[in-house]
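Tutorial sheet, problem 5. The two components below are modelled jointly, 769 residues in total.
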Amino acid sequence: VLILLRNATVYAPEPLGVRDILVGHERILWIGERMERLPAALDTIELDLEGSIVIPGLIDGHAHLTGGGGEAGAETRVPAPWLSQYTTGAVTTAIGVLGTDDVTRTTGDLLVTARGLVADGLSAWCHTGGYHVPPVTLTGSVRGDITHVDRIIGVGEIAISDHRSSQPTIDELLRIAADAHVGGLMTGKAGILHLHVGDGPRGLDLIRRALDISEIPGRVFNPTHVNRRRALFEEAVEITARGCVVDITAFDVAADEDAWSAPDALERYFASGAPADRVTVSSDGGGCLPVFNDEGRVVRMGVGDSGALVKCFCELVRRGHPVERVLAPMTSNVATLLRLPRKGRLLPGYDADIAVLDETLDIRHVMARGTWHVYDGVAVRRGMFEPR
Amino acid sequence: MLTIIENGEIYAPEPCGRQSVLLLDGKIGKIGDVDLHAVERLGLEFRVIDAAGCVVAPGFIDPHEHLLGGSGEEGFSTQTPMITLSEIVTAGITSVVGALGVDTTMKTMAGLLARVKGLKEEGLSAFLWSGGYNVPPSSVTQSIRNDMMFIDEVVGAGEIAIADKRGLCPQAPELAKLVLDTHVGGLLSGKAGITHFHVGEHDQRLKRLREMLEGDFAVEAEMLYPTHITRSEALMDEAIELAGRGAHVDIDTVEGELTRWVRYYLDHGGDPSKLTISSDSGASSPKKLYEEFCHAVVHARIPLETILPMITSNTATVLKLKTKGAIKTGFDGDLVVMEARSLEIRHVVASGQSMVFDGELARNENFLETTTRVIDLVGTK
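Model answer (structure tokens):
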């Protein structure tokens, strides 16, 4: 009934050194230097992880659980990622969003997809709404959705500075942010307004104005895709001083593009001296990543993938950044912003969401809520309709 | 946190003899021998509950409580205040289903849902019926089926009033729509999806339910779950007949006489696996459920293993609570430890958390930490 991980080099994300970790049911029961041999009656399975690195399962704060896309016609709607697409990327928690298409995709579908992932052993929550204003909801209001529906923790991704947005006014944005904030207060949930920021030159202008004229705390405004333009990224680093947590998207960036890749962006963020806990990285998994020309036509199409997080992590560790520093934006920082209890850290009482990497940083094992999903590099648990 | 409950007689609810139960956080990890001293040596945080001389039963499931308080049908001042955590857990109840009743105007679905979430935050397992006496029923999302799909805590529709002047005289066709809508919501969400019926005093009794089953409606008995069936022997006879067709039926303990009615049900061929017991608390107390259960076993000598399923496993079955109502590995750590002879409650554990320890309340309502109010109200009935 228990699982004992021995001799692992643990990053919680802060480095703990070589530790034993005892897992019971879905939780971490104990972390310490050396656990004695457990009584046989406890039916403990031991796993020696000498030489391996153990980190918290990654939290993908922006994933299109139902699949996104559809921006270049019905044939470009992306299908829903299956269970092992998260776990093979060491992602054990995903936060779902609707994007451009909040007409044929619904909050109900998103919510139920998140529940399905939870039933399959992952942890998942979602935001209500999508790109557009007024946001699509289940109960008629953002505040109602956050208050009544267990898995809905905030609103978003509402689009700003983007040709696909509803061109929300400052008043509209404030109303939505206030609803999210109050919903968060009433329930103890995240209560954030997660903002898709497009390529438009207005950048974070709307957020700055909202902070100038309202009492709503900075943490409520959570812009994503802030590395899509280099100038936008500078705005993002600056706005963290006002309490905002900014989210970097781990999409592919070509050498000649006016954008920063996620590793480059994080590296610049660390170097800027901005608060270390006000940056996160997400994958935009399941979303399509269209590249538009000047006329707004799609010239190229990619698909986001939750596996992008661990790639970003490995790249930065290989560049010599300390593991704990690189991990925080994909684990503890996300859990803190989203007020996810028992997530994002390896501590007794926390959920047993654990990834084991070998010396070359390849994923060996991934455990979600106490169950192995990836073992010896193989996805051992798959969704019901996943191809095998 | 590990919890070891040792030396107790396990009723799972069927009698299983003397065994230890090991809880890992909120779940039952193992039933059988656990070497306490070996665990102690490891330096793990753990708690021991000594159940010597006690029976260990699954936490009770109360399928019908007016968590926001009773409607009060003699003016506003007769509304009763909300049911508190301590009232529930000191009665051995670790899972509760909240309901609205007559009053769905001042008492709302949103309010009831919030109360359910509050109890969950305090460590209880809590659910709710969507609706109230009226048809069409009240809901959170404007439809019962959507409530079933989107609100995790909603297990079905209820309590819909039939045979009662306070109901809205629903006819079989509209009741059938409601029942089937709830059923479909249950299929889609993997939840119970049953309709819980308040049966009033009118001598129409269960006629509407039979009309649904016998008419051209595709309604099946398993979708129906009537309560308050002890108003008369005639009503009880009809309930026994309905249970024979596959429905679960529920006795409330408001008026007492649980022993009489359980005996009547069993003596008249009622299927023991289809009967549940609820407190219908609101005007009355959740404690009444426990007191009536105690009386039935201790004084009236109904065997414990006969009556225990009616407040544990039968209820979990009808509510489709898949990890509740039994002491089994992997099930929720919901347990009641009672003195074997008197059935006095010694310990109540809900999802691994001690609610009552050594006969004393161990967990208070969260709001008490932030208030200076002194609330000490005692009913005179």
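Marking note: DSSP finds eleven helices and 17 strands in chain B. Full credit if you identified this.
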